[in-house]
Amino acid sequence: MKGSLRILYHIVVIVLSAAIALSLPYAASFIARKFLAFWSLIEDETTFLVSIEIACAMLLIFSLNYIGRSWKDRKLANAAKSAGLAFALSRKGRFTQKRIKRLKEKQGIARDIMVIGSTGFRTFVDSKGDMHEVIKDCRKAKIMLLNPYSEGASIRASSIPEPDITTDHFHEQIKKSIDFIKGLNEVRRNVKMKLYNDVPFLKLTILGDYIWVQHYHAGMDVKAMPEYVFKHNQNSSGFYAPFYQYFLSRWNDPEIPEYDFDTEALIYRDKAGNEIRREEFNLTCDNN
């Protein structure tokens, strides 16, 4: 049955092609006669002819501008593809925020995740956070947050000109994030966390073959910054590998201690992973 339909389809195409080919001379002759008749009516209408010339000039200008803009857009698209850029998303708008949350859940659930953040509260603790569900159902997680008692946390908090964001509020958010992640780890035992001391530079979220990047701009809340998504590919010019290496270099930095969920201590390790020393870390009081 399918063979008969295919033969019939080819016959119809051939017949239509022949009909169109045979009708072309008659169609061209008809159009020519109509054009000559129309031209005899307007050839002495100077105003009308000038109007047509202006309209044609404007159409030509718009067409050339469109072609030029399309060419530039194509070059930008090729550059973005070469860099591995999959998305560039503004976090403004509820619809966009829901889309970002869905994408991260799709990319991160049942996979290994790696995150560098600041407080982690809006990311993990808040039920509307992008990674709230992901961290519950991921395979393994490596999380890096600010040490709440570090100078970097104080500088970051004081740099944001919003009355609700104070150093004490910043400390409290980090503590809640640590408690939240600690609670998850008691059940799943699949989370490792480190606390760094310097001022945050990049918010980095690695979800399988995708890396989400935001810049911690001085004086601005990170939620106001766009989020860029890079996809892993075989192209050596892509930015996935450099950002991935950046995370590994930070994670393996001997100066950044691991938080031990069982003893609530900070463990310093060498680059080979061997423990060097431990420091007490009490979330209930100031460590300074």
What does this structure look like?
Helix content is 51%, strand content 19%. The protein has a ten-stranded mixed β-sheet, with helices on both faces. Helix 6 (151-159) crosses helix 7 (167-188). The radius of gyration is 31 Å and the shape is elongated. Strand 8 and strand 9 form a beta hairpin. The protein is an alpha+beta fold and 288 residues long. The protein has eight helices and ten strands. It folds into two domains: 2-81, no CATH class; 86-280, Endonuclease Chain A (Endonuclease, Chain A).
Brief account:
The chain has 288 residues and is of the alpha+beta class. It has helices at residues 2-42, 46-83, 94-108, 121-125, 134-137, 151-159, 167-188, 240-251; strands spanning 85-89, 112-116, 140-146, 191-196, 202-207, 210-215, 227-231, 258-260, 265-269, 275-280. A hairpin with a 4-residue loop joins β8 (258-260) and β9.
